[in-house]
Amino acid sequence: MKSSSSASFRRVSIIVVPLLLISSVCTYAETNGDLAAGVALPEVIVHASRYAAVEYPPPANIEVLDRERLDQLAGDWLTVLNSFRGLYMSPLTGSPIQMEPSLRGFGDYAQGRILLLYNGIRLNRPDMALFDWLSIPLDEVSAIELDRGGASAMYGNYAVAGVLQIRTEPAEVPYVRMEAGSDGFFSGAAGAGLHENAHRASVRVQEDDGDGYRDSSDYHASTLSGDYLYESNGLRVAANALAQDLFYQLPGSLTKAEMDANRRAAENENDSINNRQYRGSISGSATSAVQSILFDAGWTRRLIDSTMNSFSSYNAVVLDGASLSPRWRWHADERWDVLLGADVYYDKLDQTRYPTAEFAGREGDAKVTRLTYAGYASGGVRLPIDLRLDLAGRLEQAETEAKSRAGGETTTDDRETQNGQAWSASLSRAWPLVSVYAGLHRIYRYPFIDEMASYYGWGDTLYKDIDPEHGINLDAGASLMLPMQMELSLECYQLDMKDEIAYNPVTYRNENMDETRRRGMGLGLQRPTGVFQWHTSADWVDASFTGGPYDGNKVPLVSEYVLKAGFSWQVLDQVSTGLEGRWIGARKVGGDYENTQENLEAYTTVDWMIRWEPLETVAIFGAVCNLFNEQYASSAYLGYPEVGYYPAAGTTWKVGAKVTF
Fold first, then answer.
1. Do residues 138 and 80 make contact, with C-beta atoms less than 8 angstroms apart?
2. H or E element that contains 275
3. Which end of the chain has less Cβ packing within 10 Å, N or C?
4. Parallel, antiparallel, or unpaired: how do β-strands 175-181 and 186-196 relate?
5. Residue 310 gets which letter from DSSP?
6. Computed over its alpha carbons, how large is the radius of gyration of the chain?
7. pLDDT surpasses 90 at 95
């Protein structure tokens, strides 16, 4: 691993900082003499309250990327997600398949503390697996919204550190996109759309293929998806369907000596996952002058064959999920806004174990199901001096049942019911150019179903001694529109967690840990419009244990400082280019609660993008990621006898073109 992260950071700063200064000067020149236009408020649609609302500007803890911004980032999920302030992704295989998120002081198992919504439907898996990013067609994403902070009162489970909302719209015209790049990367997609009066529909096919940066990290995905949208006279109905066949390899971790000798090496040469996924969703709303009726419903089936030769483990899993979320909103009086809703989720995991990679001769099986149902209410009222008070409350119950067999004998047949309660209270005030807010929130998360249930043939049981984790989150922030179309945002927060769930290396399972505290602050400055668009941000978080044997120690896999900067420059009418740079501070390795291991080193990466549109219907683009070939480990976990590291990709590149008809 490189020990020159600071030198790399200086090299990047030499490039990025002057470019931002140049951008600021050009911004001033572009808007000089018309400062009134320079502070025009942008209209931003956010969904933090589970319905679309216009914000001028959005609160400091909400960030939205629109389609134009996604095109500037060259359509890559890693670059797109890393552009959000305070959020960073840690790829485990050097491919886009396995990426660990980190946000607001959560790094380990953060996929269980960030709620992922796709057109209003929850995509978090009930087991501990990471998000399936290749199952989301980035071509048709219309906007991505990140709501930082706890939102359990509105959304329930998973919404501890934030909510990531992804929304798509049908393509209106046919298109073809082709990309190729380093490490055998290829991505091709074709779509066709129909727009007839109030009806819009589209269908698309996509192929993704790559060797990955590391040995034995091949992946391939074939995806068919479709969207439908109807909008007319206050009625809106949207539907989405997807079918995908995804295969990927898991090269595993390396010791530090192995990583220094060959960063591309694989610890496991024959471990792989084949994931066939089918997904459908429908949502709708009917809005009048005084009220709205809204609903979201979704269904997912995953057929997962896991061939883990390194562990002599061969499993076939069927993972089903269904959800229904009706809600009613009353907004007859502009002073009042009331929302009543319910959420019902059903998750089922059917697992069959086999003794060989040929998946023959059943060894055992298990079924774990969870039924979750909740009711919630929220209301907002406008007080004197234009203060707004928002209150929300939620009651939720989850029933988990586990049954397993091994050798023809029943090993587990048990169930457990757990309760979740959340509430939220916030005050906000918006002036023409300034908005401020402060809030107090109670949050919670249920254990993953495979944190509660052991069902692999040894020690099978349903752990009833593991409780939902919960906490109190206090946050405040402000957004300010400045001259020259600049936006300043500031937020600070403190989150006190109890019964936080993490892996215990002594008992070899996930358990409730001692109390933790996360205190943080984020500052952002950006100019999102004009010929020169730029952003810069700094986030600080102190994540520490506040009780028990680890009192005062740092929480693993959390960087204390995250710095980001980037810009996009419309060089000519048809040509634009940009840079995205980030510096991620040092972290304790996963599982190092005693803080005795060597830190994961800080690292700096820079991505460069260019886009040329010679015709209105043609776009040619390219990107170079990790421009300076920073060599670092994106993640690491305490193992026995040594720490296992996951080396990140070095410099990679891609070129592509998109043609619309």
1. yes
2. strand 271-287
3. C
4. antiparallel
5. G
6. 24
7. no
